[in-house]
Amino acid sequence: MSFKVAVIGDVDTTTGFALAGAQYVHVHIDKNGTLSKLGELLADKEIGLVLITHRIAEELGAEFRMTIRKKGLLPIVLRIPDKTGYTPKVDELYNLIKRTVGAEIVVRAEGG
Amino acid sequence: MAEAVSAVTPTRMELLKLRQRVSLAQKGHDLLREKMDALVIEFFEVLKKIGDAKSAALNQLSLAYRALSVCSAVMGTIETRQASREAKRELEIEISTRHIMGIVVPTLEVEELKRNALSRGYSLHTTSSVLDDASKEFEKALGLLVKLAELEESANAIARELEGTKRRVNALEYILIPRLKATIKFIEMRLDEMERENFSRLKRIKAMLEARE
User: Which one of A60, A69, B54, B154 has the fewest CB atoms closer than 10 angstroms to its CB?
Assistant: First the structure.
């Protein structure tokens, strides 16, 4: 099955990915608009991958996490840094490891 | 010490049933534990891959942003945006599913990600070559991000399964099995107690019978 790619980001991010061929782009303006758009994108059966910048994901906060948790297998939501290279300090993956494997294993692969 | 199941009749039949349940629970526990170990190994393998994929993707992405900045500087921001609107946007990714230890994980593949300047769809005579560079970098970055998305989703799926398995292992190990064992112990004690009661009762009866003769 082939799916389409959607991007939620600031103007530059969306410009770049539109040049690369991403089909749906949404420029983030305010929280509510982006949240409803995100809901639409997740409900769309044609979309397989949603890219969202870390900064916006953080701005959407708890509601974003709730939405992500409720979604099915597809589309996949991936958070990417924006043009300033902004990534959150708390690593999502690190939390995941801590939660699932237990606190006793915290050493992980270099660069992860 | 775990609490024994209170509503239990202390009979030999019940004891046998309970013993069977314990051995079944133990078997289940061992199996789940093995599954958990296998999942942890799988999980860490995926994590290792994520580490590499992530650094590659992020590097490429920052290169792409830089190329875009150059493009905006050379061509102007508005013209760049205009070109991005004109660009052909029909990227399709192939998504299929794969099973790791019974967990469904997606696999993503992109066809024809890299395009040449002509097939991108924007007008060539109003745009500069830096736009082509930026597009190329973004196409590359998108390819790497797709791979990363696949790996992260796999890690998430495995983690979810791992959590569930862990909960079940712990429920068996710390709640169900101790409770069953406590119940078994309770029944054994009760049966022994009954035996002793019976024994002394018999002795007493015997003494009475002897006294009567």
Answer: A69
